[in-house]
UniProtKB/TrEMBL annotation:
<keyword id="KW-0472">Membrane</keyword>
<feature type="transmembrane region" description="Helical">
    <location>
        <begin position="386"/>
        <end position="403"/>
    </location>
</feature>
<feature type="transmembrane region" description="Helical">
    <location>
        <begin position="252"/>
        <end position="275"/>
    </location>
</feature>
<keyword id="KW-0813">Transport</keyword>
<feature type="transmembrane region" description="Helical">
    <location>
        <begin position="175"/>
        <end position="203"/>
    </location>
</feature>
<feature type="transmembrane region" description="Helical">
    <location>
        <begin position="355"/>
        <end position="380"/>
    </location>
</feature>
<dbReference type="InterPro" id="IPR037272">
    <property type="entry name" value="SNS_sf"/>
</dbReference>
<feature type="transmembrane region" description="Helical">
    <location>
        <begin position="85"/>
        <end position="109"/>
    </location>
</feature>
<feature type="transmembrane region" description="Helical">
    <location>
        <begin position="144"/>
        <end position="163"/>
    </location>
</feature>
<dbReference type="Pfam" id="PF00209">
    <property type="entry name" value="SNF"/>
</dbReference>
<feature type="transmembrane region" description="Helical">
    <location>
        <begin position="296"/>
        <end position="314"/>
    </location>
</feature>
<protein>
    <submittedName>
        <fullName>Sodium:neurotransmitter symporter</fullName>
    </submittedName>
</protein>
<keyword id="KW-1133">Transmembrane helix</keyword>
<feature type="transmembrane region" description="Helical">
    <location>
        <begin position="43"/>
        <end position="65"/>
    </location>
</feature>
<dbReference type="InterPro" id="IPR047218">
    <property type="entry name" value="YocR/YhdH-like"/>
</dbReference>
<feature type="transmembrane region" description="Helical">
    <location>
        <begin position="423"/>
        <end position="445"/>
    </location>
</feature>
<feature type="transmembrane region" description="Helical">
    <location>
        <begin position="320"/>
        <end position="343"/>
    </location>
</feature>
Length: 449
């Protein structure tokens, strides 16, 4: 391992950091409404299956390659290559992954800034500072840039601390807070009128839709994106993992926590939407589909909170703080992708690398904000619809076809002397070589078409 790279000091610290990377806004606002709009428990069932049929094997590809190389995405894919051509393509793939990570953080920081504004606006309004509260939730350019910069400073501040003192320390604080807050909010919402209707939509399966192409592809996308795959975040975290940790079981724990939080979020979001409907808030669009994503978070739920009086102020503050934590645990892993590259490739001090990468990404965010109508949707589509699945496909190809099996076996034998006879080694190499590329490739083709 390169001197000074840093390392997670505990398995639990790594699991919480990796789960924090995976648990983002999509888990909390995307998955629940997709489930409610796609057959309820039928979608949840398909999602759970696909999370371990697709997401876990690809997650293991990133973790194994990262831990084997103990290096950034460019160095790792180049290092496992068996020819000059594959090394060049691997370095290019890693470089594009770093670029995609930067672009993802450029729009993620904007949305996270909005969330910071909403978090502060409710208690500020309750104290009587209406003008300040209105500014925090408005769409003024100065407000958008100020909150984005604040969020980026928070992200940079954690990453500057390094793997153990920054990422691991804050992940072990933030993730338990996220889980406790999510459970508390869900329990409270379930006591309100209308919540039972939301539970029925979420938990009762519409079995007629279980083999629907739309349902399956939506569940495929949710399973793939919910684990933060395709841009090298898990590869980087794997590179900081001790050689003493058993990767197959550790990766399974990460996947279980991520999936568990997504499912748990459904017990908050879907009942909350129907509580809102009970109180006269519109929760369906013109086509009869449940409102989702930014409309849900920044319109529907705030309208619900306003109907709850003082309890709504506390609930709104806690809810948006929850989203803020989810944003931050994801953003620190995304920023670590370019930071690790700058530290290792150019021998930069971590502080300089984090400040430089963070400043450049914040600059891109500013450009996006100044040309919001044109650039925001373009960046989101380019990265999440095309970039992530294509890069995920490349990772499967490198893990299954380029990386030598004896080298993979050697990596597994670091913690399991009998790895050659293990169920994981008998199944995973064949699976990631043949099955995963077909599944991820189908996501790519559907995205393009």
């Amino acid at each position: 391992m390169a001197a000074g790279r840093g390392e997670f000091k505990s398995r639990w610290g790594f699991i919480l950091a990796a789960a924090g990377s995976a648990v983002g806004l999509g888990n909390i606002w995307g998955f629940p409404t997709q489930a409610a709009s796609n057959g309820g428990a039928a979608f949840v069932l398909v999602y759970l299956v696909l999370a371990f049929v697709l997401a876990y094997p690809v997650l293991m590809a990133e973790l194994l390659i990262g831990r084997h190389a103990h290096g950034n995405a460019v160095a790792a894919l180049r290092g496992i290559s068996n020819s000059r051509l594959s090394a060049g393509i691997g370095a290019l793939t890693g470089g594009i992954g770093i670029l995609m990570a930067c672009l993802i953080l450029s729009f993620y920081g904007i949305v996270a800034g909005w969330i910071l504004g909403y978090t502060a606006s409710f208690p500020i309004e309750a104290l009587g500072f209406t003008s300040a509260a209105d500014w925090l939730i408005g769409f003024d350019l100065s407000r958008n840039i100020s909150l984005m910069v604040l969020f980026m400073f928070m992200t940079i501040g954690i990453v500057v601390g390094g793997v153990h003192d920054g990422i691991e320390r804050w992940s072990t604080r933030l993730m338990p807070a996220l889980i406790v807050t999510l459970i508390a909010l869900a329990l409270y919402v379930l006591t309100l009128d209308g919540a039972s209707a939301g539970l029925k939509v979420y938990l009762l399966p519409d079995l007629s839709r279980i083999f629907s192409g739309d349902l399956i592809f939506d569940a495929l996308g949710s399973a793939f994106f919910s684990l933060s795959l395709g841009v090298g975040t898990m590869l980087i975290y794997g590179s900081y993992l001790s050689d003493k940790e058993n990767l197959p079981s550790t990766g399974a724990q990460v996947a279980l926590i991520d999936v568990g939080i997504a499912v748990l979020a459904g017990f908050l979001i879907v009942p909350a939407m129907f509580v809102a409907a009970e109180r006269g808030v519109e929760i369906f669009d013109a086509r009869g589909a449940l409102l989702s994503e930014d409309t849900l978070i920044f319109n529907v739920l705030p309208a619900l909170f306003e109907t709850l009086g003082l309890a709504g102020t506390f609930m709104a503050t806690a809810f948006f703080a929850l989203l803020g934590v989810a944003s931050l645990t994801s953003s620190i892993s995304i920023l670590e992708v370019p930071v690790a590259f700058l530290v290792e490739q150019f021998n930069w001090p971590r502080k300089r690398a984090a400040l430089t990468a963070g400043a450049l990404i914040a600059t891109v965010s500013g450009i996006v904000l100044m040309n919001f109508d044109v650039l925001f949707g373009l960046v989101v589509t380019l990265t999440t619809r095309y970039g992530q699945p294509i890069l995920g496909l490349m990772l499967c190809i490198y893990a299954g076809w380029v990386w030598r099996q004896d080298s993979l076996l050697g990596e597994l034998k670091k913690t399991d002397a009998a790895a050659e006879t293990s169920l994981f080694f008998r199944i995973w190499p064949v699976y990631v070589r043949f099955v995963c590329p077909v599944i991820v490739g189908s996501i790519v083709i559907r995205s393009i078409l």
